[in-house]
């Protein structure tokens, strides 16, 4: 995969804990599965709607792939046979280049109409 960034969605308390410690061990599902689940630009919105509806406000982390250890990052088949980024170790929070807070709406959804503005490729991308 040729992507300069991958994305991690966290609930606010998970994000605050990672900030406090300076590293991300992962959400409970990540710990259970043995790796940190990420999404590509194209997968982020569907991941948010599928796994975070009615779970509260979230933060999306934009993570620089070049700041991660290559040997621990794998793109593996998951939902709909798409390749999803999985990171098999703890992530230092300095790999995060930006964050985006997404509040939960009254119906439990997260409106992210402008997600492309957050995740769009910039000049530093491939």
TrEMBL record:
This is DUF952 domain-containing protein. Pfam families: DUF952. Gene3D superfamilies: Protein of unknown function DUF952 (3.20.170.20). Signal peptide: none annotated. It comes from Temperatibacter marinus.
């Amino acid at each position: 995969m040729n992507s300069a960034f991958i994305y991690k969605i966290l609930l606010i308390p998970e994000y605050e804990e990672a900030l406090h410690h300076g590293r991300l061990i992962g959400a409970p599902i990540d710990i259970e599965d043995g790796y940190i689940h990420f999404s590509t630009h194209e997968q982020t919105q569907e991941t948010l709607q599928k796994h975070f509806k009615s779970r509260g406000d979230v933060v999306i982390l934009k993570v620089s792939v070049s700041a991660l250890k290559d040997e621990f990052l794998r793109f593996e088949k998951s939902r709909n046979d798409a390749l999803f980024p999985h990171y098999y170790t703890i992530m230092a929070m300095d790999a995060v280049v930006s964050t985006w807070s997404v509040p939960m709406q009254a119906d439990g959804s997260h409106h992210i109409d402008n997600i492309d503005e957050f995740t769009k490729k910039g000049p530093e991308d491939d």
